[in-house]
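Components:
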Amino acid sequence: MARLITNRRQVLKLGAALGGLAASGLSMPALAQDKRVRMFWWGSKERADRTNKVNKLYEAAHPGTAINGETLGWPDYWPRLATQTAGRNAPDVIQMDYRYIVEYARRGALLPLDEYLPSVLKIEDFGKPAIDCGRVEGKLYGVNLGNNSTAIVYDAETLQQIGVEEPSWEWSWAQWGDWSLKVAQASKRDGFWGIGDCGGIEPALDCWLRQKGKALYTAEGRPGFDVEVMTEWFGFWHELRQKKAIPPADIQALDKQSPETSMLALLHSAAIITNSNQLVAHQVLSKTKLKMTMQPSGGPGAKPGQYLKPSMLFSIAARSQVAEEAVRVANYYVTDVEAGKVLGVERGVPASKTLREAVAPTLDELSRAMLDYVSFITDKVGDLPPSPPKGAGEINFLLKRVNEQVGFDQAAPADAAKQFVDEANSILDRG
Amino acid sequence: MTVAVQASGRVERARGRRRIGSRTLSGYMFLTPWLIGFIGLTAGPILVSLYLSFTDFDLLQSPNWVGAANYVRIATADPKFLSSMKVTFLFVLFAVPLKLAFALGVAMLLNKGIAGLPVYRALFYLPSLLGASVAIAVLWRQLFAGSGLINQALALVGIQGPSWISNPNYALSTLVVLSIWQFGSPMIIFLAGLRQIPRDLYEAAAIDGARPWHRFWRITLPLLTPVVFFNAVIQTIEAFKAFTPAFIISEGTGGPIDSTLFYTLYLYQEAFSNFRMGYASALAWVLVVIIALFTAFSFLSARYWVHYDE
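Structure:
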């Protein structure tokens, strides 16, 4: 026992060797006088192109610094980041998600950035909320790369062709349901509906719960939902399914929560619930013109369901050998006008007012739509909820699975609700 | 003369003992690259995973010793352990016998002495080479999708097929079919086994009036049992370890409704999606034990049905 503990460092190193294998390409020692900053992000090819371009710009403006970029898709990104961190080989600049920042910060994997304020990190003009979303227990661990919110992206061109009106941001959940059926009836396409089955889609549930004054998770990291409200939720979608207003379960199950497998991309629905900054990603996959509006409204007297959140942040690894240079790179991304013009709003709408105003005139139509959307909803949204607890990612998949059980007639909405609440509780208990 | 030879032989042996020592050493020297790889990349991590299975390692923080807690949870409080075990056992139960039967059938056809045998052999082996690759799993997803090739073919005869891969009733069977399709390597081994069966046995049986079915049942199969046994053991282990097809076809979710959540996929999720590396290590060791038990059982049962030509 005692021997194991004295050996722990070695054990860890060995264990990390497995994961480190994959990272071996990245672990080259820095060359001579060059400062080598490693940057790691998730995202599409579009994002990679823009990011690499900005890194080139930075290198040109800062001789003696080289940025090694590395990118993966979302599902592969997190295992890789975790193994690299475990192997003490974390990249210097880490693209961080609001969902994970608490976990990484609390475990000492990230560098507190307060001492770089405002000497290197010049983000005062973000305003307090947009800075504080990067704080964990009072310390700054992340630089907001852009704001976004959830949104409904819809296929305006197809709607026009089949003669159904475009959805409105004031519509209630029930009105969206009616509209979905109308689209299904008006369309000559086989297997086409207005909107997909959102019973298993976490951002939709999040919005719906907040409109009822509840939340996905409380500030203490416990479920903010109960059996009653979940019965209503699964029941609402089940009824639409029975009316054939939304896709049946075996079509909905094709959706693996990536843009490529969305009901919209697979031509099964005219609208989907997604993140506002992903409009570009969806448009790339669609031949017809897409537009964007808010999630269904909660009706009169309801609280705001949506909120603005950092679509992602830049964090710096706690063990970074080139920490100050890494912070400078992060600062460049969120303050430099030239960089901002290349990045556009692909990572969300810049938090810096100066940068936003400088970038706005250079945006293409699609990016402009995202910017306008965020401006439009700013006075209609609520406060940012606390960062979700550990296990939230698992509950996201649980929601999808339980909704599928209702869809495939393996569980009634009330039973599904009870199962969902029970399993979510046990996941959170386990931590 | 003989004495001289014996004497020199003795000297030779005496000297040889020393030389064998240095020869062994140089042998190990040549093996060093492999040994380093084996110890550092295989044996080391395996041992570490055994240690980690008794900890709460989450990749980010140092592991804490939790005793047998992970194993206790697996045995008593993990419904997903049971459901993923069930999926894997169903897969093994159907994929292995069907694949072996199919491989044997094709091998017997090829053994009829047709022209261009090497070409056919290579062609039939091809899927096994591509087998576990991502590309094939992606292809499979396309084939069995709602508007995929399979359903287009069914539509020609007036059947409207379901969306195979996204229906919990059929998703696992598409993976079984994928596995059967990769029958190449057992087939090659069957083919080699078939060629070793002496022709005169068949001739004698034919003279005695045995029909083809009898010849297969009384001659081919009994003489082939060592090969069947070998293939069954290897394929069972492979089937228990199957991961890539389920991972790609369900995009790592094991869906719909966990119908393709193989044990290995669940293990992967626990390790890399939920960061429970300690628990996942325990799951991995449970799988090792299960495979070992199955293999041991196969070997024990072998004496009752495998006929060695001795």
